[in-house]
Amino acid sequence: MHKSVLSLVCCLFFFLSCQEEIETMPNGSLNIVLTDEAAVTRTLPEALSDELRQQFTIELLRDREGTIVPEYKGALKDFGDQRVFKVGSYQLKAYLGENPSLALDAPYYYGEVQDIAIEKGKATTVTVGCKVANALATFEIVNQEVFDKRLKDYYVEVSAGGESVTWKPGDATHPYFKAGGRVTMALIGTSVETGQEGSYALNPIETVKAGVKYNYKLSMKASNVSLEVTTETQQEPITINETVPDSWLPKAKVFSEDFDENHVLTYTETADALSRAGIAYTALRPVQDVEFAFNFADKHLEHLNKTYLLSELSEEDRRALAAVNIVLPDLTAGSTEGVIDFAGVTSGMLTHDGGQDTDNIIAVRVKANDRWSDAGMYTIRTVKPVFKVGYYPGNVWTKEFTLNTLTADSVKTGNLDKFTDIAYEFSADGNSWEAMPGDLRKAGLSPGTSYYVRAKYRGEVPGEKVEVKTYPQTMLENGSLEGATVLAGDDGGISRGTVYGWDGWATLNRVSTPSGATAYSFNSRSGCRPTDDGHTGKGVRVITLGYVMGGVAKPKAAMHSELYLGTSADDSGNNKEYGTAFYSRPTALGFWYKCIENIVGNDVSLVKIQLLHD
Questions:
Q1: For residue 198, how far is the Cα from the chain centroid?
Q2: pLDDT tens across 377-416, in order?
C-alpha cells in the first residue's frame, strides 16, 4: 500500500512538471508543404496532388536540451494547415510507403528537414522536398516475335534480400527494391524446341541507387543454333509523380463550375443559349475512357436517352449528338482532363405539359488508372419564362376593358422574339379560361368586378395571371334632378326673381336674376326652372330669356340658359367651371331631353355631353 501511494505521488509530480512547461513556454506555429524534389531538377511539375500529400506520414522531433523527443506523428491530413508547437529547434520527416527489400509496385517516398526554428508568435512554413528513396526496374522485350518463336511461358525473376518477384511481358507492375542492396535478375522460360526450362542471367545491380529507374531492354538473335539474349541497361532519375502506383492514386474526378451546389443548372425556355454548361473531369493519369448517360425529359431530346462509351461511340451517335450541339471531348493520348459541353443544346430545350419544369439528367463517370470514378449526376432544368400581359388604366371601364399585346417590357425572363403561337385568354374566376376576342376588347362585363387575363405562347405555356378590375358604376349626384332648391327670392305666384338650384348641378340663374323679386317676371327670372314634365316626373326646363330692366320687348340683355355639371357662375357671370370629377370610368352615359319650340319656332338648342380623362 505504501508503494502504491508513492507511485501515485511521483506520477502527479511528473504531470505537474509537464503542465508547467506547456503553460509557461511561448508557442509558434508550423505549416508543412511537400514537393517532388527530383522534379525540380528536371523542370517537371514539382507539386504533389493533394490526395497524395495527405497520405504522407509526418514525424516532428524536438531538440530538448540535446535530447530528441517526438512531438507529432501522424498523417499529414490530420496535421491540418497549421499547428501550434512550443518554441524550439525541430527536425521533420515525411514518408510514404514501407520500403521493403523487394516488392511489386511498392515505391517509398521520403524527405526530411533539419534545424527548423519555431519562434514565439510566428508562423513558420517548411517546404519538404520528398523523393523516391528506393528504386525500380522496368523491362522491355525488343523483338518479342523472336522470343515467342524460341521460348514459351517466359518471365523475368528478380531477387533481392531473400525475396523474389516475377515480371511477365504485358505486366503493368514493376519491381521495387531498397537502396543500397544487391539485385539479381534472370530470364526464365521453356524452349519451344526441346521443352526444357532454362535460365539466362541478366546484368545484376551491385549497389542500388535511390531514386533511379533501371531500364532493361532484352533482345534475342534470330539464330537456330543457340539462345543469345542481349541486355541493354539504362539508368535514369525518377520522380514521385512518375512512380505513384495506380492503386495509390485517387479516382478521376467529375465536376462542374457551371452547375450549382446541388448539381442543377437552370435554363429559361426561349432565352439565348447558356454561355457555359460544361461537365468536366480530371485525373492524375491519362484518361482511358468516359461514360455518359442521358435521361432527358425534354420530348425532342429523349431519343438520345441511353448510355454512351466515348471509346466506342459510333458515327451515327456522334452525328445525333452533334445535331443538338452537344460537344464531346477527345480521348487524346496522354490527356488527363476534358469537358462535355451542353451550352449549345440549351437554346432548344422546352418545358412540358403547359410550362411544367423539365429535368434533363446527365450522368458522367471517367476511367483512369484502371479505375472508374464515381458517377457525377447533373440536371439541366428548363423552366418557363416569366411574362405577363399588360393594359393601360385608361382602357379599363365599368363594363369592358382592352388589353395590350405582349411587348419586350412584358417579358421578365426569356426572349419575346422566340415566342410562337401567342394567344390571350380571359377568365371570370381565375381557373376556367376562354380566348380573348381578336381586338383584345372584352365587353359586357359587370361593374366593380375582378376578372383575370393571361397570355400564353407555343399554344400551351401560360404567363402570369393578371387581375383586371372594372370600375364601379357611379350614379351622378341627383341625376334625376329631383328637388329644386330656392336659393334666393320668392317661389310664390309667378316666381318673379326666384333663383333656383339643384344639388350637384350648376346654372347661370344668378346672372339672369340681378334684381331679385322686385323686378318683373321677364326681366328677372331663372333660365333653368323646375318642371313636372321630365322623363320620369321631375325635370328642368332650360329657356332662352331676356333680362334686366328695359321692358318686355327690349330687355337690356339676353341669355341662353345652361344646366351643367360644374360650378355656377356668380351674378356677373364669372367663375364658371364646367365638369366634375368622380371615381368611375363609365362605359356609357345616358340622358333624356325634349325640345319645346316657341311660337316663332326659331330656337336652337345644344346638348353636349363629354367624358374627359384627367
A1: 68
A2: 999 999 999 999 999 998 999 999 999 999 999 999 999 9
